[in-house]
Amino acid sequence: MSINFTSNDAASAAAITIGGQSASTKGVVGPFPRYSISRENLTLEDGTHLNARFNITVTGTATMKTGDPQNVTTQGQRQNTVQGEAIILAQLNREEWPLVGTGTLEITPYGGGGNSIKFGDAKILSIELLEQGEGSAGIQYQEYVIQFEAFEDESTSSNTGNSKLVLPTYNLTSASESWDFGESDQRAFASNKVSNDAKKTFTLSHTVSATGIPDLDDSDKPVYAWNEAKSYVKDRLVSDPLTIAMEPLKGLPTNSDVANLKKLFEERGYSIDDWGTANHVRAINSSVTTGEYSVTDTWVVLEKTANATVDIEFTFDTGEQADLATATVSGTITGLNTNAVTDATDSKFTNAESAWTTIQSDLFTATNTQFQLLSTGTTLKNAELTKNVGKNKTTGTITFSVSYNDVDCLLTGCIEESLQEDYSGGTDVVAVIGIILRAIGPVIQDMGTITEKRKSVTFTAKMKKTHRANKPDGETIVNRYKPSKSKTGAGPYNDAKQETWNKMSGEYTLTKEWVYT
Question: Which residues pair with 35 in a beta bridge?
């Protein structure tokens, strides 16, 4: 029997023989060592088998080999030789740098044969040089214990009834996968119509993580553990999360009843055919030194006819103190990225613009519908009093605010107007005559007549931008309020008129004043 360890750190590395030899230029001299092997099954939390870890303990005795100085008459010579074997043991498999540390450990039975115990990725975990007992006296031999760890069992057995060894597809020590599916506080509108009912949206996240084991490729060069983990994780990622089968480990036989997101979604009463995904974001966490690799994908799930979410708010001012009933609709459109996660650009802002084009044409209808629910007895007029729009290409958002009122304009093309009537005159005419030394004051004498009457009418209006090319004419409107004279009186006579017009702002004012009796 012999135990050989061949390092993977050099393509031409020679085997190190541990015990079972009388002389060697590479290895540990001594009788055949003893060994023990324990297997630990690595499983997922649900018990699904993942891999196996082997712990191999080799216990032996290192002695002096033929040809080494060991003359008992020379002081310290035998102890020096035994200590040299201890150094060889302590420096086992440290001949090159950088050192990955794995190798092939093979335990061959006496006389050879096919029943070799072989591990292709054995790693020396520890080497212990035991305290020398009385039998050794520090000059006869050195006992040792070498601890190996391995995952790749390449052993073969020629015995009858031997079953075929099946190795795992991925070299992993742990793996996990989770799905989080929940309702979002964002809402989308079918076909981006605000007048339609808002539809729910959902958030979906998928996390796959694994810890790998170093492996050998075809060139017998070490492959980092994180590469094994990454290989598993990348094979588990999906582009269409709505159809993924939620099996606990990739490669397991797929049962027709295996859980998938489609079933979880339809449990809420939705048809999966009406829904799609957007805003696919992928976050990667990779640790080379620990052999860990994980990916978290997130999506927004919403109806296929929508490519943006919209937050809408309606506010109304209809109280008795309000001159006019006004309504304001404001909101934020958040475009969703419908491009693939591997694309260098996203479509958030493009989709936000597309949604805004449809939404802004629907704002008045939606606002007026809400306004009618207040039972004010009036309807809004389709004229935008104010309109503010903000666009952010970086975040893919568009904010807006539009206001309307319920004014019935007398002047065609105006968005708001007012008319004020002022009256003066028609008061008694008296004479106030001061008398010297009259203690009770002046003499006040009624002249038997009254002052002339006056009426002033002021009409103001703000015109739409489409009606600012020419000065409006408010004459007809103001003349409707022309006063009437008394039965025996005179007039009315228009003795004052003032008209102003600001073409840039659309502000128009006409004031006329009449005098009459």
Answer: 58
Q: Which of 118-122, 200-204, 300-304, 473-477 has the highest mean predicted lDDT (pLDDT)?
A: 473-477
Residue 380: other Cβ atoms inside 10 A: 23
| Residues shown for the chain | 517
- Does residue 80 lie in a domain region? yes
Query: Do residues 423 and 337 share a domain?
Result: no
Domain span including residue 368: 308-405
* CB-CB neighbours of 155 under 10 Å: 14
Mean pLDDT, residues 145-169 taken together: 82
Are β-strands 117-129 and 34-43 bridged in parallel, bridged antiparallel, or unpaired?
unpaired
Question: Does the pLDDT at position 217 exceed 50?
Answer: yes
| Beta-strand runs (E) in 167-274 | 172-189, 198-212, 215-216, 222-223
Q: Tell me whether residue 167 is in a domain.
A: no
Q: Residue 143's beta-bridge partner residues? A: 61
Q: Give the H/E segment covering residue 79.
A: helix 77-90
In 3D space, the residue among 21, 107, 92 whose CA is nearest the CA of residue 57 turns out to be 107
* Token pair recorded at residue 140: 């006869």
Q: Any alpha helices (H) in 336-437, and if so which ranges? A: 348-360, 363-372
Gyration radius of the chain's alpha carbons: 48
Nearest Cα residue to 240 out of 211, 265, 268: 265
Q: Does residue 450 fall inside a structural domain?
A: yes
CB of 490 closer than 8 Å to CB of 460: no
Positive or negative: CA dihedral 253, 255, 258, 262: positive
Is 160 domain-assigned? no
Question: How far is 484 from 474, CA to CA, in rounded Å?
Answer: 20
User: Which percentage of the chain shows pLDDT scores above 90?
Assistant: 47
Which residue from 125, 148, 123, 153 is spatially nearest to 42, judged by alpha carbons? 153
Q: What is the count of structural domains for the chain? A: 4
Q: Note whether 379 and 333 are same-domain residues.
A: yes
